[in-house]
Amino acid sequence: MRILVVGSGGREHALVWAIAASPLADRIYCAPGNAGIAEMATCVPIGSEDIDALVRFARDESIDFVVVGPEAPLVAGLADRLEAAGIKTFGPSRKAAALEGSKGFTKDLCARYGIPTAAYRRFADAAAAKAYIRERGAPIVVKADGLAAGKGVVVARTLAEAEAAVDEALVAHRFGAAGSEVVIEDFLEGEEASILALVDGENFLTLPSAQDHKPAFDGDRGPNTGGMGAYSPAPVVTPALEAAIKETILAPTIAAMAAEGRPFKGVLYAGLMITAAGPQLIEFNVRFGDPECQALLVRLKSDLLPALMAARDGQLKFFDLRWHDEPSLCVVMASRGYPGAYRKGSEIRNLAAAANVEGVTIFHAGTAQEDGRIVATGGRVLNVTARGKTLAEAQGRAYRAVDLIDWPEGFCRRDIGWRALQR
Fold first, then answer.
1. Angle formed by the axes of helices 10-20 and 304-313, nearest 10°
2. Distances in Å between the alpha carbon of 311 and those of 89, 304, 308?
3. What 3-state class would DSSP assign to 66?
4. 114 part of a folded domain
5. Does any domain span residue 106?
6. Local confidence pLDDT in tens for the 423 residues of the chain
7. Residue 391 and residue 308 share a domain
8. Residues near 103 by beta carbon (within 8 Å), at least 6 away in sequence
9. Are residues 173 and 197 part of one domain?
């Protein structure tokens, strides 16, 4: 099969890495890819949101199957366009991708179908939003309705912080059209976890649990990011809790989307808060989480490609996947200044030595090759991922590799996995 993976981040590198192991994959392309992906796939200079060019390339190159990595092209309807051109695609339709494309849509769906989530209101008017905030009190959560690259959510500890977040979105228009409406919701107390499921429109297959680390700095301090590290499994998700998540959140959502004429096919990521009252939905993503994808795929024993094809073809009912028992942990190395302004073009050295640490796989998230050198081109740049007999061993291996990487312009959190290790 001739495969096209769309995207340029660590998630896409992990997907290419897993698909490259499949005997079904004859030729793999990635658009646009990065320096790490170029070692195992043919990178083509087409942006992930250039839908016309992607459809044209897939048709011209007789691509058999497309795997869409990021959310923006899905929300823009890439899967619909590819399928209309007769090209089989893993990823939800534009209508189904509204689960991530509009937080207000998702909250309304939860309200209609009794899916547990925090109480909320939607606002397009800053004064009305601030009045509601004062009525509810702090802490409180302010979210830009649309896609904001993981940066549109503020967990406000004070009323002033919440009102400033409203002004950023609705007055300063920091997020453009994505922030033309905000969702304000009650703060949920508990521990976060992520469950991802392959979905074929009706049936679903859950992947092992994972836990992300959103704040930029150790001790969960600093601004929210797209994710500074992850590990799998998350001990907070017990077998009983996983059963509850399937029963109260995943199954009702998939049934609701079908009932609404928006059948969901692809991977559904449930970001959850495990509260005293049980699991509550924080958000849905309509693609593999990043960096959860990296932590999960290094644990996968089975061939990923047939599973993705089964989701697209409506054939998951009798499908299963096998996983390594060993836990995994992923440390994100980011450019100094991220998630704010950062410098591009700094050189990264000694990657080969770091990749030789036992149990370690390094995924590139924001790199390019220039004159034979690997340089940083993004905010999140490398995903140093490791498996081990225990989570402590996986953590030790990952940080051993991090310490071998020569990149003065980079930084990382040094406490990825702390909650599980504290247990």
1. 100
2. 10, 11, 5
3. strand
4. no
5. no
6. 999 999 999 999 999 999 999 999 999 999 999 999 999 999 999 999 999 999 999 999 999 999 999 999 999 999 999 999 999 999 999 999 999 999 999 999 999 999 999 999 999 999 999 999 999 999 999 999 999 876 788 899 999 999 999 999 999 899 999 899 999 999 999 999 999 999 999 999 999 999 999 999 999 999 888 899 999 999 999 999 999 999 999 999 999 999 999 999 999 999 999 999 999 999 999 999 999 999 999 999 999 999 999 999 999 998 999 999 999 999 999 999 999 999 999 999 999 999 999 999 999 999 999 999 999 999 999 999 999 999 999 999 999 999 999 999 999 999 999 999 998
7. no
8. 143, 144, 145, 146, 183, 283
9. no
State the Cα–Cα distance between residues 85 and 100, nearest whole angstrom.
24
> Bridge partners of 156?
140
The answer to whether the CB of 97 falls within 8 A of the CB of 71 is yes
Amino acid (1-letter code) at residue 157:
R
How far is 212 from 231, CA to CA, in rounded Å? Answer: 7
Residues with Cβ within 8 Å of residue 24, at least 6 apart in sequence: 1, 303, 305, 306
| 412 and 340 within one domain | yes
Question: Among 146, 159, 155, which Cα is nearest to 215's?
Answer: 155
Question: 132, 151, 186 — which closes off a domain?
Answer: 186
Report the distance separating Cα 180 and Cα 144, nearest Å: 8
Residue 148 CA, distance from chain mean position: 13
Domain holding 269: CATH number? 3.30.470.20
Domain containing 383: what range? 328-422
Instruction: Take residue 127 and report the two structure tokens written for it.
Output: 């004064």
Distance separating alpha carbons of residues 21 and 23, to the nearest angstrom: 7
Write the single-letter amino acid at 340.
G
The domain that holds 149 is classified in CATH as 3.30.1490.20
Nearest partner of 17 among 295, 230, 227, judged by Cα: 295
Which pair of tokens denotes residue 160? 């002033």
* Cα 249 from chain centroid (whole Å): 18
Helix (H) or strand (E) holding 100: helix 98-101
Specify the number of domains making up the chain.
4
Give the containing element (helix H, strand E) for 269: strand 265-275
Report the C-alpha gap between 42 and 61 in whole angstroms: 12
8 in the same domain as 66: yes
Domain boundary among the residues 253, 288, 313 is at 313
Entry pTM: 0.96
Say if 110 falls within a structural domain: no
